[in-house]
Write a structure and sequence with these properties.
The structure holds two protein chains of two kinds. By secondary structure, chain A is mainly β. Helix content of chain A is about 0%, strand content about 55%. Chain A has strands at about 5, 10-15, 20-25, 30-40, 45-50, 55, 60-65, 70-75, 85-90, 95-100, 105-109. In chain A, the strands form two sheets. In chain A, strands 2, 4, 5, 9, 10 and 11 form a six-stranded mixed beta sheet that branches. Chain A starts with a strand and ends with a strand. By secondary structure, chain B is mainly β. Chain B has strands at about 5, 10-15, 20-25, 30-35, 45-50, 55, 65, 75-80, 85-95, 105, 110-115. In chain B, strands 2, 4, 5, 6, 9, 10 and 11 form a seven-stranded mixed beta sheet that branches. In chain B, strands 1-3-8-7 form a four-stranded antiparallel beta sheet, with no helix packed on it. In chain B, a hairpin with a 2-residue loop joins strand 5 (about 45-50) and strand 6. The chains are: A mainly beta, B mainly beta. The interface of A and B includes residues 91 and 101 of A.
Chain lengths: ~110, ~120
């Protein structure tokens, strides 16, 4: 089992749709969680950190479920510019950082 | 304003010919990381520095080395590149490395390495 698993997609959605991604992690001692966005042939960019209480940033909502060891990302009112690969990142104690392979999203007009 | 800078953006080398990739940061972050990312795969951490302390991932080949002469700069040396080392190499920084905050990583634009 991979340490961090994501559905690779692709998710093909129309503009305005709501789309949700899940990410599961295997190490119950993991402490920090993030969602990154990566455009084709570009570097990952931090989208949001994920807190135990859940957090929201505009159209984006992240949730953490420690009991089931998964995090989620919800995108509301999808825009064409949201098309990208979304990477789930999990940190254990210290430096260990594990990236998921990413979920590809295509938003179409 | 570029905060994590990588040079060159594209590097072509020959099989077995040493190559050095460069990363610099203007963030004054304590931690610098090097990742390898192959097509359609997750970035894979090779090693990192916390200040001057070097930390190698257990599965990073000996062919990969790193230097951090000062806070701002970090280098990735590939001593004898093989065809399998062709990838995007990403440098990242974070202020701290623990789990109490300030541990978000910020990435440079990457260097795409081609091995002929």
């Amino acid at each position: 089992r991979k340490e961090v698993e994501q559905d690779p997609g692709p998710f093909n959605v129309p503009e305005g749709a709501t789309v949700a991604f899940n990410c599961t992690y295997s190490n119950s001692a993991s402490q920090s969680f993030f969602w990154y966005r990566q455009d084709c042939r570009k570097e990952p960019k931090l989208l949001m950190s994920v807190y135990s209480s859940g957090n929201e940033d505009g159209r984006f909502t992240a949730q953490l479920n420690r009991a089931s060891q998964y995090i989620s990302l919800l995108i509301r009112d999808s825009k064409l510019s949201d098309s990208a690969t979304y990477l789930c990142v999990v940190k254990g104690g210290g430096f260990k950082t594990i990236f998921g392979a990413g979920t590809r999203l295509f938003v179409k007009a | 304003d570029a905060m994590v800078i990588q040079n060159p953006r594209y590097q072509v080398t020959q099989f077995g010919k040493p190559v050095t990739l460069s990363c610099s940061q203007t963030l004054n972050h304590n931690v610098m990381y090097w990742y390898q990312q192959k097509s359609s795969q997750a970035p894979k951490l090779l090693f990192h520095y916390y200040d001057k302390d070097f930390n190698n991932e257990a599965d990073t080949p000996d062919n990969f080395q790193s230097r951090r002469p000062n806070t701002s700069f970090c280098f990735l040396d590939i001593r004898s590149p093989g065809l399998g080392d062709a990838a995007m190499y990403l440098c990242a920084t974070s202020r701290e490395a623990g789990t109490s905050g300030n541990n978000e990583q910020f990435f440079g634009p990457g260097t795409r390495l081609t091995v002929l």
